Structure formats: C-alpha cells, structure tokens
Amino acid sequence: MKRPTSFDLAAMAGVSQATVSRALNGSALVSADARRRVMDAAQKLHYKVDSNARKLRSNKIQTLAVLVLEDMENDHGAINPFFVPMISEIIKYAGQKGFELVISLQQESNNWGADYCISRPAEGIIFLGSKDFETYAENFQGYNHADDNWVVWGLNRTARGKVCVVSDNEGGAFDAVTHLIRQGRRRIAYLGKFSGDHWEFIERYQGYCRALHDAGLPFDDALKVDCALTLDDGAAAAGKLLDTGVAFDAIFASTDIMGIGAMRELTRRGIAIPGQVAVMGFDDLWVCNTVSPRLSSVRQDTTTAARVLVDSVAALIEGHEITTTRIPTQLVIRDSCRTV
Amino acid sequence: MKRPTSFDLAAMAGVSQATVSRALNGSALVSADARRRVMDAAQKLHYKVDSNARKLRSNKIQTLAVLVLEDMENDHGAINPFFVPMISEIIKYAGQKGFELVISLQQESNNWGADYCISRPAEGIIFLGSKDFETYAENFQGYNHADDNWVVWGLNRTARGKVCVVSDNEGGAFDAVTHLIRQGRRRIAYLGKFSGDHWEFIERYQGYCRALHDAGLPFDDALKVDCALTLDDGAAAAGKLLDTGVAFDAIFASTDIMGIGAMRELTRRGIAIPGQVAVMGFDDLWVCNTVSPRLSSVRQDTTTAARVLVDSVAALIEGHEITTTRIPTQLVIRDSCRTV
DNA sequence: TTGTATGCGTTATCAA
DNA sequence: TTGATAACGCATACAA
User: Fold this and answer.
1) B63-166+302-327 belongs to which homologous superfamily?
2) How many Cβ atoms sit within 10 Å of the Cβ of residue B319?
3) Which of A116, A149, A279, B313 is the S-S candidate for A336 at Cβ 3.0 to 4.6 Å?
4) Is the CB of A318 inside 8 Å of chain B's CB atoms?
5) Domains B63-166+302-327 and B169-300 alike in fold
6) The pTM is what?
7) Tell me: the pLDDT tens digits for A281-321?
8) Residue nearest to nucleotide C2 (CA to C1')
C-alpha cells in the first residue's frame, strides 16, 4: 500500500504528470475537463502532494523555525507563559504569510544545536528565550554568519550585530513607576534579577531609576531586592523586604510572576493591597486577571512582537537589510494599585 | 550567493559527492582523513544539508503535524492554557523520537483544512481542540480514510472509529466530588457546559452524579448550573447560584477557569472559601497556584497524554493497530477545600 | 491546452 | 573504502 504519486494520478486521469501538477496548483493552463478528471482521481486515491518534493523542486514554500530557549527556572517546568501568546501569534501570522513552521523547545538532553547546525530544516529562524543566549551563539558557530537568517527576541546584549526585536523595557518601567508616583506612592520597592545576563531586567531597573529621579524622589538601596523568577522567589523577596523593616508603600516587580508571589506574601501577612502597598507587575500575563486583587502591569505587545519577528525573518530571507525594532509597551491599570 | 550543495563540498574536499553524504551521516564506510576534509569544507562553506532533499530521498525523518482547533471562547483570545503544557511536551517528546514537528493553529480566515487535504506536510497528525470536531471531520473528507494517520485528543464522541486519547473525565469528577463529600460537604453545586458537543463535560457531570448517588446524597437540579468557558461566565454562574438563594456548601467547577471565576464572585460577595463554600476545579492549570486560596483541582496528566498521542501516531505510521487510551486523572488538594 | 524532458539536492545501490 | 549512477516526487521550460 504505497503512497500514490502524481504519476499514478496521471495514469488514472488519462493525462500526463505535468498536467496533474498544473491542475493541482490551479494553473490556468489546463482544461476544465482535465482538471475535473485529475481532481476526481485525487479524491479516489486519497492523493496528497508530497511536501518535501514540492519544496525541493520549487523553492517557493518557505519554512521558518522557532527555537525556544528556556531556562526552566519557573515553577512548573513548562514553557514560560509569556511566550505562549507570542508563539501562538507567530504560528498564525507565519501561516498567513505562507510559511510553514517548525518548532523546537530546547531541552538539556536534546542536542538540537547540533541538528540545526548540520541540517537546515528552515530558511529562517526565530529565537525565543530568556536563557543566556551567548552560550548558545557560541555553540552555533554555524549561525554566526551573515548568510543565516535569524532573529532574536529580546536579548539585545548578546545579539552581536544580529537583528533583534525587543520591548521598550526602560520606557515601560518608567511609565509604571511614574504612575505609582502620581498616585502618591513615595517608597517604591524594586524586585528584579540582577545576576545573570538578563538584560531586560537591567533596562527595567533603569526605567525605575529614571522615574524616581525625574520625580525628585530619593533613591534607597534598601528598596532594591534581588529576586529570581518564580512565584516563591517573589514571595521570598517580599518577605525579606518586610523582615528588614524598611518602609515601603509600593512594589514594582519586574515580572508578573514575581509580583504575584509578592502579593501572596503580603496578603499572608495581612497587608492590604492596594490599601497599604500598591503592586505593579511587568509582562501583563493572563494570570494578572485571575489573582485578587487583579494585578496592574506593563503589557508587552506580543502580537506586534510576533509579527515583527516573522516580518523580520522574511525580510532577511529576501535579502533585505533589517534593523532592531523596539516595541512600545502599554500600562494596564487594575485593582492592585490606586491613588492613596 | 547561492547555497552550497554537497557537490560543492565534494569539490572543495577533493572527494566524490557520495563520500560527502556518507561523512555527513556518520557512516563507518569513510576514512578518517576524508571525513575530516569534508567536515572542514562544510565549516568553511557554512554548508547545511537540505532537509527537503534528504527527506524526499530517504523516507527516514518523519514529520508530525499538530493541528490546534480552538474555539477561542476564552477571555484571552489566545490558545487554551490547558493545551500549553501538552503542546510543549508533544514538541519535546516528538523531538526525542526523531520526528520533526509542524504546528498549525486553526483560524477562521485560514483554510488550513484545504491545505492539509491537498498537501501532506506530515506523515501523521495530532488534533487538539475543544471545538466541535465533527464539523471539521466532514470538511476533511481526505482524512476520513484508513490510510491517514491521525489521532484526536479528547473528543471521543466524534472520533468515528478513529483513535483518540482522553482523560478519565468521569472518574476524575467522581474522585473530586467524593472528596468534597468526605470532607463533609452535602450541597455541592455543579458548574458545567451542557450545550454544544463538549463530551468531556457530560462525562464530568456523570462522575458528579455517580458520586452523589454512591454517597446516598439527594440530587437537586437547582445546584446544576449551565456555564460557558470564560472567567466571567464562571463568576456569573456563581452569582446566579447565590441569587437564586439555593443553599450550597461547595462548588465543583468542570474547568479551573470556571472555578476561578466563581471564586472571584464568592469573594466579592464576602463568602469565605473554603470556610463557607469549598471550591474544586478541573484541569489543574498552573493558575491554580496563583489564585488565593489556591484552587484544588483534578489534574489531567498532559505529559502522559502528549506521549501517548505521539506514540499512537507513530504506531499508526508504522502500520500497527491502535486503540483508544484513557488516561487516569489525579486529585490535587489545595487551600480551596478542607474538612468542615 | 497538453505532453516531454530536465533538474531540485539528497541517499542508496552498485561495481570498482 | 570509494565513485559513478539511479532514484525520490514534483514543478517548469520548452516543444508540440
């Protein structure tokens, strides 16, 4: 029971293989009668075009790859929830633009690096990931060349002259903290990751600092807490803040997860949100709506990001020059902060 | 600047193209010297094997497709969060088993149906989706044949003799409700979807009924609330329950999202959870950990599900017979319910 | 409008 | 151990 080929169709339809190909591709150069016979035969034989042969022959259908580099530092061992709507949109948008999409999740035991270096399943690659990209770039010597079409999300520090797409982290943080200040908060704690190569967090911290500075507020190092990326880390950070006894009336968490963890600890200790302490997150994950009070946040526009990523790779494939794109963020105010 | 082929490599390395192929595929039938020269040339030319040609010639590397049929009935306009860890695991596991993976999200404007009928980008297909599958099956006449390798997640009612993989919804619901009863709850409301073709919900409802029956508890139709799939629907359902004035001391929500929405409404009206009302969800989404109190739930084992799905398609591709698999669920008790 | 013939870049089968 | 050479299944230039 072998798969039927276009020759089998041709035989059954009583035409040449070339005509089968034309009919299947909707060419105008085929009579209505022949087309119908071909289609009937295709139906009968359950014929499907072999995608590999088609792509090999006509370099028309492009394939993109999405490589997700996860640090798996989060609670549930799964993919970073931030990437979910982004990947989803990449899939949709790439489909609209006529690309086929291959997805791969990095995994320790899985040397996709070697695979992707030696073989080329895609004309262009989109890298998503919060993990230190530099390490990978070095392993991927094959990808450090101008003839490879790849685009990186959000890790501009390590992009080494390559195109990247990234949110305006500094501006988003600035807006968020400025909002808290306008609502009357004066002692705003910052929760963020200072170790590692998470450049986004540095930018967010810079936005925090600029907002304080522009408002003429003093900077207090005791309000700056190093915090890893899980819920528990966020809770621990809030706990540490409370334990030190330093006064604060707001928390700006550099990710929603940290913020939600912090809220959990505040609530546990009987501190009212936003009554005593306002909380602001970053990312605008969907979970912001499920916690109570609902968490205010800085939305990263994953829809636009996804489209820019795809468009950028597409442009690279076509040989165009592309530059890094900064995507604006948007403040989303919910119950977790209000005017004092 | 054309892509180098294996012939270019051969020329540079001073060997035949056949030797290049052997070297690249790690054949033992190639001298160490030749292998080194080939590898060096590959490095210099940034050579990558053309995956299409390779797959065309050696029908070795199989490709699987994941088709996500979403009803987009959720708040977020994005993919159902339940599928996220599942897709993630499918990607990982399929990769481990040597499959390439193509993913497509159903979208109204996007007639992937036609595409997937006429072309065959994959040897096997995994359907995920809560949408009425029957409609699609009809559009996919090409897929209603024994020579197509596809597996469906969770929609056994419409699988029409095809293989499907599904959680033990009835048993999971039974366990959950039985747990509530053992904790002393007597008036347990059921929130679920009764319209449409969501067969899972019927099964969960059956489990609920059986648990009541086995415990000798009376069945009260006023405790059964029709509820759609969003947070707001869950909240509305809880509100309706409260407004009717019917007494209840627990809610079994047939999805976590409904349950979280219900919790929001209960909290808003000052009803203590689990003090006055215990709440139990279904799915064990990650968000169960972020809400307060943390939501108890029935875990669907998405990891196992993903692996069974991949294994099933793989088996079909190899020509084996496969039967439907029921995957056990697991009760996860958190703060939202406790003994009265 | 149709058919013939060629090539896409591999892997696999021979014979050397 | 290597090198010619033949497929793989399709799309397309060219001839009819």
Assistant:
1) Response regulator (3.40.50.2300)
2) 8
3) A279
4) no
5) yes
6) 0.80
7) 999 998 898 898 999 999 999 999 999 999 998 888 777 78
8) A19
